[in-house]
Amino acid sequence: MNVSYVITKGYENKTLGGSGKNKANTKPNKANSKPISPKTKPIQTQYKPKQTQFQRKKMLPRLTINLFWLYLRETICINLWLMDEMTIKTPPKGLMILVLVGPAFVWAAEYIGSGEVILATRTGAILGTTILWAVVLGIFLKFWIGMSGARYTVCTGEGMIDMFGRMPGPGHWAVWIVLVAQFVGATLSIGSIAKAAGFFVASLIPIGPTLAGWLVVFFAVGVAWSGRFNILKIIMSIFVLIIVLGVLYVAGHVFPGFTEFMRSLSFGIPDVPHWALGIEGVSDNPWKEILPLLGWGAGGFASQVWYTYWVLGAGYGAAAGREYGKAADVPALQNMSGENAQKIKGWCRVLYADATLAMVIGIVVTCAFLIAGAGILGPKQMAPEGNDVAFTLSKVFSDRWGPVGGFLFILAGAAALISTQTGQLAGWPRLLADSCRICIPGFDKKLAWKTQFRFFLIFFLCTNMIIVFAMGIKPVRLLKFSALLDGLLLTPLQAIWVAIGLFIVMPKMLSKEAAGILRPNRIFAVGLIIAFLVFGYFCVVQMPSVLFGK
Predict the structure, then answer these.
(1) Which fold has domain 85-548?
(2) Model confidence at 291, in pLDDT bands (50, 70, 90)?
(3) Following DSSP, what letter does each residue of 223-237 receive, concatenated?
(4) In whole angstroms, how large is the CA radius of gyration of the chain?
(5) Helices 389-439 & 103-111 angle (0-180, nearest 10)
(6) Which of 18, 29, 211, 310 has the fewest CB atoms within 10 Å of its CB?
(7) Rounded distance, CA 424 to CA 462, Å?
(8) Residue pLDDT, tens place only, 104-134
């Protein structure tokens, strides 16, 4: 065969894929007279297979091996890598800490509610400012419970209910107690807040209390429905601002003076005035008014649990990137490096600033409501209890300072009750979903966390309708009962459980090096033990006389 024919383009076109004999091209290409330069590649004239066909045969096995390796690395090695190189963000320092303060506003806005707006104002009218010590003591002691539980969350990445699930003893006995007690307490407390909020809102806008209560409930459900912390933080921060400005404006006009204020912190127990004994629901035992105030100060048992959820949402320390409804990754914590433990210790300082801010807001606002009641309602010998609480307060305050004073006080009260309703509907479904996940095997496997959360949210929506609008229960009595059940009865147990979790359970979950770095200061033990003793005394000594006495 003539080679000159073979190297022609015409031969390639006629022979590739064709059939029959080869035919020579009548016009063969002329030979290139110019010599080929060493730097110039000769033109390839022979058939070159398509490159895509070649790559598919050779690259497919290599691609399969690479994908399989990535799968192994992501599914098997990633957890070990995260444990050894735990991606803990560098904590802020100095004034930058204030930029990341956030859970405090949700915590404060949630627990500044019925106990402050209704109970503190009414108790101040009856007993005066002499019992301001009860407000300060109750909030200060619960501050230690809430902050200690949140410190556990910052170090481990799980909430307080999961901590209770690790208590020594058979099964999940502590969580079972929480589940039963909180289910009852949640139903009553949320209903009482919705009923009271309806009357306050009706004092601001020309609608009926029933419709106002419905609007409050649906607003709270709408805010809580997504389950996202950032939305809750923004809404609650706005409410806190309204509460603080409104109530301080009113209380500032009737402040008793610095000397009288300091005297009111001397743990005095005043007698119930004669004019108050004629009011329905008031007895000669002052503890019947003081104990509910102690129970609702800084919220009840559930409020301290919820604070750990708000810290999870903010992503402090080991809580960064954690999802709700998940227990801590213990194998990861046991491999925690000393460097990451130091970072978490820095985040603990952020937590201390956040919790302290919540405590200060709570003390100032609650004392302001009590001072307002003592300075305005007390001299008029008025202690409203029933559905006329909001209307009475609005009328009295308006008569004293005109429409502006009355409007600001009722606005602050309405904001406090709406924020509490929102916080409770965001917190209690989380608490009960976690309790069911721990106590009922397979509960979290059958239902996703958001489904669990919304199930309980809808349940409380229905119970609100029944309690608030179908039952003629006076809000003050319902609030007092809820305060004793949720705010006092379980609080001593909560203080002890948190102490066990912080000092016994947590060190076993961490690496030896991390446990030494994150060992809590003894001041936490002192605060928790004092909280246990004080609230235990009230439960054992004073509560029986309140419940079963005159």
Answers:
(1) Amino acid/polyamine transporter I (1.20.1740)
(2) confident
(3) HHHT--HHHHHHHHH
(4) 34
(5) 120
(6) 18
(7) 15
(8) 998 888 888 766 777 788 888 899 889 999 9
